[in-house]
Amino acid sequence: MILKQSFLHIFLVFTSLIIHIDLCAQNDIDILINKMSIEEKVGQMTQLNLGFLSSSTNQHDGKIKQIDSNKLINAIKNYHVGSILNTAGTAYSIEKWHKILTQIQDIAMTTELQIPILYGIDAIHGVTYTKGSTLFPHNIGLAATRNPSLIREIAKVTAKETRASGIRWNFDPVLDIGRNPLWPRFCETFGEDPYLVSSMGSEIIKGYEADGLSNYTSVSSCMKHFIGYSDPKSGKDRTEAYISDITLWQKHIPSFKAAIDAGASTIMINSSMINDVPVHSSYELLTNLLRNNLGFKGMIVTDWEDIIRLHERHKIASSPREAVKIAINAGIDMSMVPNSYSFCEHLVDLVRTGEIPETRINYSVRRILELKKKLGLFNNPYPEKEAFKNFALKEYKTLALNSAEQSLVLLKNKNQILPLPKDKKYLLLGPATNCLSALNGCWSYSWQGDKENVYPEDGKTILDVFKLRFKKNQILCKANNQYSNPKNFVINFSEEEINKVDYVILFLGENAYAESPGNINDLKLDYNQIELAKKAISTGKKIILVLIQGRPRIISDFSENIDGIINASLPGSMGAQAIVNLIFGDFNPSGTLPFTYPANTGDILTYDHKNLSAMIRTAPNKRKYGGYNPEFKFGDGLSYSNFSVSELKLSKDTLIKSEKINVSFLVTNYGLIDGNKNIDMFIKDHFASLAPDVKNLKGFKKVFLKAGEKKTINFEIDKNDLFFYDENGIKLFEEGIFSIQIEDEIKSFYFIP
Ligand code: BGC
Question: Active-site positions?
């Protein structure tokens, strides 16, 4: 008993110490806030673009920007700016980043309050803006891996390389749901399913933050873009979306909720509008939903220029000053202004005139300063020496290759044409054959990712890898490294040369683009690529098509005549090696689609559509219509081995209240080689008071099986897999029949909530 009491004493002393330390910590921030002028507080809420603090000298190949120390001093000393973002051009060497960060923090340390600057950057699939960093597949490819631990590992490496660059805040991950394949940021999403996006997104958050923000292996994450950005009516970036409250809850909110629960420290807001309300202006969405309902306690940052755009684009504010007032009242903490001082000037004035209470901005300033403190910036604002050693390690390349391999999806393999034999002759065609930007896509050493000359010298195109692996006389290729070069869209060989070829491999898709410059009017593959594919088919050779693209471009004009199809998405810096490895069977593919690949531009339906859309009907003239008829389905993906799923069993046929059901089934590899099998588990709600989806993903696993091996796999489900939301975000649990579906196996049970 005494022993227990003394333990209790130690425990209490210890916890009170922690509470004391914590209170002291809070007091530090409060003491600091009490010392700050209105200008200094507003400055903390201001984020400027590094380009705005630079002077540009026009050089022959574009604008080279030099950081202007007078502008920097003006921003930090006179405007008390708290945060800077971005690069003033393309990627910098790590040494240059250190120099820039040191220059910035040196100025901050000479101010009276010595508040360090919080630097933020987009490290979207690896560290976008540091030369020599490791670029991984984009999220749309990562979602195809169905491998959360791999994704966490990638995030960890990205955190280490960002921090090694001297930067502690990453504007990632994108948690928007890829419901509209026209949207040019589709590749930044983890696909169309909320459960998949939630699972992968929270792994990224943990990879960035779980070591503790003060640790030199971590960065602060930034979930984005809250909310409803990804499903604009027109498919064009930053245009209006119309999303019902039920759909917001059902599809768009869960990934943010999961990330908040995983500990995400900051969030960025959707530049666009939902149901005629610009999200940056919405107290309902930013304060009632995000803060009060979802419980987000971290810092809210705007997206690029999105306060002034309430006036300039959305036209809901009659002046830039009113725009500031609306956004701050809605709940914004920090404004990514980022190319003027208008925000500072208006907000200072609004506080001085009492239109915005000083207590309101104190809340935001406290969140910003607390984040800086958690990141260890008050202890050491400079690039950390320990972090530097984590940059560009050899094993990161292996991880990039491994993740690229797992991200590739084999969609068609007629008569097992793939893998190809290694002793034949190959004609390589198409704009992506010899182009690094196509493999890496947006946010790759530049915003658009399309500057071929800024990629690392040791970067390999697909043609480079072929040249390394095969004899000269085995390859026929004249591909140019500029994607749009007309030579990439013709077959410039004689009939005699073509006759000697055994296989034609087409590398088609899209060149790199980011955000609005990637808007398209048609999801169909570009005309010149379709024509090239048709010409290739007319050679009569066996054809393999590799699609290197950020979104599913429609190929139904010619896909029937292709023997093997691989969807490579944007596989990153080791993408070429991964693709060639897949074509020649150096590994066994396991990727599965995280989206529906449409067959027609007018028939875009996600897999979790309503029963109404699933119905196939016949008109009086006997024409069939309706149904889910994509080119490839969500979850499609072949292997070089053969797997079967059988003996699906449920541990109960009735689930009551908080009970659980064990779902078990047998997976057999009856092929000749070992391989991974990705398994998706769907649940179908047969009848509900709000029209249910035909099915919903509720679990997935990656299972490794040796040739001939069988394994019993288990999932557990409970009532949390069986509810749906009403328009107020209330979870509805309704009695009725549900089914579990794994591949073609289906078993039903009854649920009594
Ligand atoms: C994008 C954000 C990005 C920001 C900063 C904006 O244009 O929408 O996703 O984080 O720029 O670069």
Answer: 303
